[in-house]
Structure formats: C-alpha cells, structure tokens
Amino acid sequence: MNGNTKAWGIKEQNELFAAGGAQHQQWGVHITRLAPGDGCVIIDWVSELPEGQPGKEALRFQVEYGLRGEADKSVHDASGPSGSYTIAGVINGSDYEIRLLAIDGPTGDIAASSPMRLARPGVVPGTVINYIHPEDYTFNFSGRSTASPSIIRLPDGALLASHDIYWGLSGQNVSTIFRSEDGGQTWRYVTYLYPCFWGKLFLHRDRVYMLACSTEYGDLLIGGSADSGETWSPPRVIIEGGSREKGGPHKAPMPVVAHRGRIWSAVEYGSWSTGGHGAGVVSAPEDADLLDPANWTASPFLRYDAAWPGAIEGGNVPGILEGNVVVTPEGQLVNLLRYQTDGGTPNYGRAILLDIDQDQPQAPLQFRKVIPFHGNLSKFAVYYDPQSSSYWSLVNRVTTPFVSQRNILTLVKSDNLEEWEIVQDMLDYESNGWHEDRTKVGFQYVDWFMDGDDMLVASRTAINGAFDFHNANYTTFHRIGNFRRLGEKRGDAQ
After folding, report:
1. Omega before 50 within 30 of 0, i.e. cis
2. Greatest C-alpha distance within the chain
3. Which residue, 116, 123, 129, is CA-closest to 91?
4. CA 399, 404, 409, 415 torsion: positive or negative?
5. Burial 66-100 (b: 16+ CB within 10 A, else e)
6. Contact status, residue 217 vs residue 250, Cβ threshold 8 Å
7. What are 103-107's contacts with CB under 8 Å, separation 24+?
8. CA-to-CA distance for 453 and 484, rounded, in angstroms?
9. Of the candidates 491, 490, 465, which has an alpha carbon nearest to the alpha carbon of residue 478?
10. What's CA 251's distance to the chain center, in Å?
11. Are 450 and 363 in contact (CB under 8 A)?
C-alpha cells in the first residue's frame, strides 16, 4: 500500500491487522484503549463479530483479568458490545493479563475474545490517553511503544489527540486517534490511521488534517477529515519516501504555521545511517486545496556543517532535526532546530536557527546562528504568544551527566527566540523520589497548544515499567494552568 490509494481511518482491529499484513485471527472483540492508574486499569472495547457468530443482541460481554502467568482469573460482566470498564483493586507494579469475552447467551460458550493485553497499574502524572505495555505484541507489525503525540482543539470544543506505535526497526506505520469531550478528563478511541507515522494533527479553516510519513523515512503524506477525525480522505504524497539505508523524509509532530499567505512546516531528509538529516520546509498557499500535492512546495534540504560559527567540536553524530517554523519579532521566518550535541564540546545546551526565504519557498534554508538553548537533545515545540509577546516551549532540561535525560519537563520562554529563560519545571522525576531507575522515565516529545490562560499538553510518557526512557508506554494529557504567571508563583502540570 503506497498511502495514496485508500482512505485513512480504519475503525477496527480486524481491518487494521489485515491492512498491516499481521498474522492475526479474526478476534471480533477488541480492546481499543488501556489506561492503567493508581490501583486500577480502565479498558475500552468494541466488538465486530464475524459472519456465523450470534448477533450482538444474543451476547453478553465479560472482562477477564488476572496476574500475568497465573491460571486463576477474575471475570466480571461488562456493559455491552462497546463500552468502558474499570478494574479496581489491582496491585501497583504488577503485570496483569486482560481480555474481553463475548459469551453466547443461550449456550454460555465463548463466541469471540479479544487478544490478550498486558497492563501494569501505578501512579501516573496527568491523565492517561492510551497505554501499551512493552511486552504487548498486539500491534507488533508497527511496534509496541506509544510515540509522537499530537493534540488539537476542534471547532466544536472537543480535544483530538493522536500517537503512533513505534519500535526500532519495526514497521512503524500505525497511528491511533482519541477524542475528549470534557477538556481532557476522559478519552475515547476514534480510529486507526494506516499507514501513518510521525504525524501532526492541525486545523486549517475548520478542517482537520494530518501531516505524517507512511513509516520511518517513508512517503511524506497529508490526509484530511471533514467530520472531526471520525473518517479520513485518502492520504496524498507530498514527498516520495526512501529508506533507513538510503535516507528519506523525516519529521515529528512539529508546528504548522500560517505566514504571508502560506502554511509552513519543517521537514528533514536523510537518516541516522546516512550520517544525519538535511533541514527544509514544506509549504502551500493558505487558500489552496491542501490535499492536492501539486500545491505543495518543498525547499532543498540543508545539511549540517561543522564549520558553522559556534558549532560544537566533535560529537557522536552531530546534526539537526525536528525543526520549528517560527516568525521572528521582525517578521522573518526561521527554523529553530534540535541540535544533536551529545559527545561533543559542549555536549548540551545549544540549538540552531536557520533562515527561511518566505518570498521564495523553493529556496534552500540558510544558516543564521547557534544559540544557547535548554533541552536541545529532544524534540521541542515552540509557539508565539501575542498576549505575552513571548515565545514559549516545553523542553527536557538536563540536570545529570546522562545528557539523554528526559525525565524533567521544563517550561521556558524567550522574547527574541535567541535568549531563553527557565520559567519552571512542570514534571520533575528527579526531585520527586520516584522508585524507578531514572533512565527508564521520560516526559518527552510533548505537543501542546495555548488554550486561554492554560497550556494543554500531550506527552510521550515512560513510567511504571517502560522498556526505557525512550520507548514509552503511555500517552498522557496535562493541563498547565495560568502558564503566563508561572515563575511569579508556584504552579504544576495536572
């Protein structure tokens, strides 16, 4: 499947498994969302029974769960062919096996069951959007880690969030959409997008779009939804893909910005195996059909140059990636990029600014400046706030010799994009005395937007038994209240 012939929006797992080429039986009952919490696990499910099975009106549904590896399981009645159930009284830090059963009412036989899922309850900062246990292979054709969170507010007031399903060297080709009707307090599953990876949800003229890749270094795609993410158009190819070995489009859920009659977003091209990534942008006229690839322009891709003034000395694989298109105070368009400085001198605390030719979108970017920056070794999103006349970001500040540290999430601000100040640590594992190895905890790759006086945040969160800090097991939601006043008084991410 090349990503431009079939609509996105796979509602159920049977169809997803078939599209992904997974060798999976037709289960009929699917757990669409797991949300482990303090002494509990919330499960959501839907059912789609194959031909020959009893009708849904003849079925009753049950939740079966128990400690991993133990034969004895608890069974509780569930509400119906779709719904939500909270398993209470479970032990934090222990793994549980969970599945949904569809029982034939007249005979008592199991008509269908979900795949067995794994969950580990525990205290979680924020609200769980979704969870995947690192040893849950249900989606292994794509991966088994939650990654690349994205979040927007819809015109009807609801929140829409997404994440892809990642594992190194796996298929990396599925994203999941969730919706909240109550400001992020509760979430429900909407659909799967396949193939879709590294995706950014954005709104343009009250229509939802997803800018993504088909897989790691695959086609750069765009698809749209006219019904708030419930169903999706066929995705269209903006830039043809490559491979890990030869290089291809690279991105993350980075900002999509309107400026001077065009919409812009940063994209890179390359791969780690080819020595890094070149930085560029894609853009299209604001009044154009965004689903027509002919309306998109891609700049050439500027490779990192160790001779740039202020560049680090040495480094493991120095380079630039995951850029932010931002408008400077003077009205110029720039790309503010993550700078891979680990192993270099200095090994932390720098970012790179490139100039974008806003009058010639087909022109290559130009080096502007190396700047001091907190949290340069992980993806960060930068947005301008007209109310405070400041730029804001949430970054992974490093406080230990382990420079890949992502277990502190820090609010930072700048008046000019070049000088950044720390406002406040919003999520701080280091100071909270958590029980886990610090290298297995992360609040990272956050996507966020300003919502009145608050920031609404989606985080790729690794905690409570993640594989490591990088391969997260949660996507979590957080609200940072009165963010402009933080630094003046104590505040916390909720």
Report:
1. no
2. 77
3. 123
4. positive
5. eeeeeeeeeeeebeebbeebebeebeeeebbbbbb
6. yes
7. 103/59, 103/60, 103/61, 103/62, 104/54, 104/58, 104/59, 105/54, 105/58, 105/59, 105/60, 106/54, 106/58
8. 7
9. 491
10. 12
11. no
- Whole-angstrom Cα distance, residue 428 to residue 204? 35
> What's the CA gap between 355 and 368, in Å, rounded?
6
Two tokens at 386?
Answer: 């007209």
pLDDT digits (tens, 9 = 90+) for 255-264: 999 999 999 9
Residue 433: CB atoms within 10 A of its CB come to 6
SS3 341: coil
- Asked whether 429 and 408 are in contact (CB, 8 A), the reply is yes
Among residues 191, 183, 121, the alpha carbon closest in space to that of 151 is found at 183
Residue environment code for 174-209, b if the CB has 16+ CB neighbours within 10 A, otherwise e:
bbbbbbbeebbebbebbbbbbbbbbbbbbeeeebbb
Distances (CA, A) of 282 to 232, 261, 328, 374, 448: 22, 14, 18, 27, 21
Position 53 scores a pLDDT of: 60
Three-class DSSP category at 401:
coil
Q: Is 78 left (phi over 0), alpha (psi -120 to 50) or beta?
A: beta
Q: Which residues are CB-contacts of 141 (< 8 A; sequence separation ≥ 6)? A: 17, 20, 21, 22, 170, 171, 173, 174
Lowest mean pLDDT among 1-10, 116-125, 473-482: 1-10
By residue count, the chain amounts to 494
- Write down the residue that tokens 């009250």 correspond to: 206
Q: Average pLDDT of 41-62? A: 78
Residue 181, both tokens: 């009707």
* Of the candidates 213, 221, 363, the residue with the CA atom closest to the CA atom of residue 300: 363
> Residues 150-208: pLDDT tens digits?
999 999 999 999 999 999 999 999 999 999 999 999 999 999 999 999 999 999 999 99
**CA–CA distance, 355 with 347 (Å, rounded to integer):** 24
User: Which tens digits make up the pLDDT trace of 373-418?
Assistant: 999 999 999 999 999 999 999 999 999 999 999 999 999 999 999 9
Quick check: pTM over 0.90?
yes
Looking from the CA of 298 toward its CB, the CA atoms found within 13 Å total 18
CA atoms within 13 A on the CB side of 470: 7
